[in-house]
Write a structure and sequence with these properties.
Elements (H helix, E strand, L loop, with lengths): L12 H17 L5 H22 L1 H8 L2 H10 L8 H32 L3 E5 L6 E5 L4 E5 L3 H19 L7
Antiparallel strand pairs: 1-2, 2-3
Length: 174
């Protein structure tokens, strides 16, 4: 009578977490790789790691694969050229515009504090070309502004520059 091999056991929660952390680190390092092709690579790596973990344990399986960045560089070297990182560029653009919005809020807070220190009142300024009215009185605390084309241009240019630099868009040319 022949016996069939035992069904593969599911890795423990800590092993699954280790595996997914490793795969996330590989994913981050492989941003240059086309995402559709990487999905298959990630699936194969997960299966191979799970199979190896059943034999030698997840820690050893991860150690055998080496550093995630080195593994990713091996895959990206097969492409022949480096590709832009669009997700990184989008994140950089969002963070850059977010920094501008944060700075505008800090400016508004400082202006309102200065008005309060001078006894209250209303001040109209033109930061970045936008007409902005700050009011701080006993009954009102407000900031009213309207976006100007200069402000819109500055926000758009900031986002564009951050996207180009973050995504390394010039790689499309090479």
């Amino acid at each position: 009578m022949t016996t069939s091999p035992a069904p593969a056991r599911r890795p423990s929660l800590p092993d699954r977490v280790r595996r997914e952390v490793y795969l996330t680190r590989v994913s981050w390092a492989m941003q240059d790789y086309p995402s559709k092709a990487f999905t298959g690579i990630k699936r194969e790596l997960r299966a191979e790691m799970t199979a190896a973990a059943a034999e030698v344990g997840m820690r050893q399986a991860i150690t055998d694969l080496g550093h995630p960045r080195v593994l990713a560089e091996g895959y990206t070297a097969e492409l022949g050229r480096r590709l832009p990182r669009y997700a990184t560029g989008a994140a950089a653009a969002v963070l850059a515009v977010g920094a501008l919005v944060y700075l505008a809020g800090a400016y508004a807070t400082g202006t309102l504090d200065a008005i309060e220190a001078m006894g209250g009142g209303t001040v109209t300024t033109h930061p970045l070309g936008a007409v902005t009215t700050f009011t701080h009185t006993a009954t009102e605390l407000s900031v009213q502004t309207s976006m100007s084309w200069q402000g819109a241009l500055m926000h758009g240019a900031t986002a564009a520059v951050a996207f180009v630099l973050g995504s390394r868009l010039w790689r499309l040319l090479g």
